[in-house]
Design a protein that fits this description.
By secondary structure, this protein is an alpha/beta fold. It has one domain: TIM Barrel, CATH 3.20.20.70. 42% of the residues lie in helices and 15% in strands. It contains twelve helices and eight strands. It has helices at 17-31, 48-55, 81-86, 97-101, 107-119, 132-136, 140-151, 157-160, 181-198, 201-206, 220-224, 241-248, and strands spanning 6-10, 38-42, 60-64, 91-94, 123-128, 164-167, 208-212, 231-234. Strands 1-2-3-4-5-6-7-8 form an eight-stranded parallel β-barrel, surrounded by five helices. Strand 1 (6-10), helix 1 (17-31) and strand 2 form a beta-alpha-beta unit. The protein is globular. The model has no long low-confidence stretch (mean pLDDT 97). Bound molecules: 2-phosphoglycolic acid.
C-alpha cells in the first residue's frame, strides 16, 4: 500500500515573524505547487498568522509546535487548539523530546493533548524516541513502544487513523548524528508492529511514521527510500529553503 510522504519542518524557537515570512515566501516559490508529497511547516506561535497568509492557496500546510490540553481559561502562557485553528493551523507537533526533557511533559499529559487535537480535527504529530543511554542499554524498542502505546491510549481506531508518528532518537536531534537508514527503518517497523497489536494490521500498514534527527539534504534520499519511513520531521535543515526543498524533492529509488 502506498503511503503518501509527509515532509515536515520544525522551525523550533527560530525566526521572528518577519524572518519567518521571508522563509515561507521562498518555500512557496520552491515547492508550493508540489502535491505528490505532503508538506508542513511549523513556525513559532508568533509567526503563525504571517506564515499562514503567505502559504494560503499553496500545497504547504501549517503546523504548530505545541498546544494546550485545555480549551481556555487560567493557563498563563498556553495556546489552545481553537487559537491555532484560528491562525490557520492544521497540524500540531506534540510530545517533542525537547518538550519531554526540558519541560517535563510526560506520556499521560501528551496523550491528553493528542486527544484534544483529534477532538478539534487537528492532525497530531506524536513524537517518540529513546535517549542514547536507553539505546546503549538495549531498551530502545521497549521505551519507544511504551511511548507509542501511552500516546494512543484510549483513542478509538477511527480517530487514531489521523495521528502521525515521528520517531526521533533523542541522540540524533541537532547533533549531526543520524540513525542509519537500516536502524531507523527497523524502529519504524517496530512501531508499526506495536500499532498492529494495539489496533490492527490494516491500521499499522496505513500509519504515517516520520523519521527525525539530523535529516538533511545529504542523507534524506537514503532515509526516505526505506520501506517503513514515510517522511521526515526536520529541524535545522528546514530553516533554509534550499535544503528543505531538496529534502522534499528527494530522489525516489
Ligand atoms: P534536527 O531536529 O533536524 O535539527 O535534528 C529535528 C527535530 O527535533 O524535530
Amino acid at each position: 500500500m502506498a503511503r503518501k510522504k509527509l515532509i515536515a519542518g520544525n522551525w523550533k524557537m527560530n525566526k521572528t515573524a518577519v524572518e519567518a515570512e521571508v522563509l515561507a515566501k521562498e518555500l512557496v516559490a520552491a515547492v508550493g505547487k508540489i502535491t505528490e508529497r505532503d508538506i508542513m511547516i511549523a513556525p513559532t506561535f508568533t509567526s503563525l498568522a504571517a506564515v499562514s497568509a503567505v502559504i494560503k492557496g499553496t500545497s504547504i500546510k501549517l503546523g504548530a509546535q505545541n498546544m494546550s490540553s485545555e480549551d481556555s481559561g487560567a493557563f498563563t502562557g498556553e495556546i489552545s487548539a481553537d487559537m491555532l485553528i484560528g491562525a490557520g493551523v492544521s497540524h500540531v507537533i506534540l510530545g517533542h523530546s525537547e518538550r519531554r526533557s526540558i519541560f517535563k511533559e510526560d506520556d499521560t499529559f501528551i496523550n491528553k493533548k493528542v486527544k484534544k487535537a483529534l477532538a478539534k480535527n487537528l492532525v497530531p504529530v506524536l513524537c517518540v524516541g529513546e535517549t542514547l543511554a536507553e539505546r546503549e542499554a538495549g531498551k530502545a524498542d521497549s521505551i519507544v513502544g511504551d511511548q507509542v502505546v501511552k500516546g494512543y491510549a484510549g483513542i478509538p481506531e477511527a480517530d487514531a487513523k489521523r495521528v502521525v508518528v515521528a520517531y526521533e532518537p533523542v541522540w540524533a536531534i541537532g547533533t549531526g548524528k543520524t540513525a542509519t537508514p537500516a536502524d531507523a527503518d527497523a524502529m519504524h517497523k517496530h512501531i508499526r508492529d506495536v500499532l498492529a497489536k494495539t489496533y490492527s494490521s490494516t491500521f499499522a500498514e496505513a500509519a504515517i511514521i516520520l523519521y527525525g534527527g539530523s535529516m538533511n539534504d545529504k542523507n534524506a534520499d537514503e532515509l526516505l527510500n526505506m520501506p517503513n519511513i514515510d517522511g521526515g520531521l526536520i529541524g535545522g535543515a528546514a530553516l533554509k529553503a534550499e535544503s528543505f526543498a531538496r529534502i522534499i524533492n528527494y530522489t525516489k529509488k
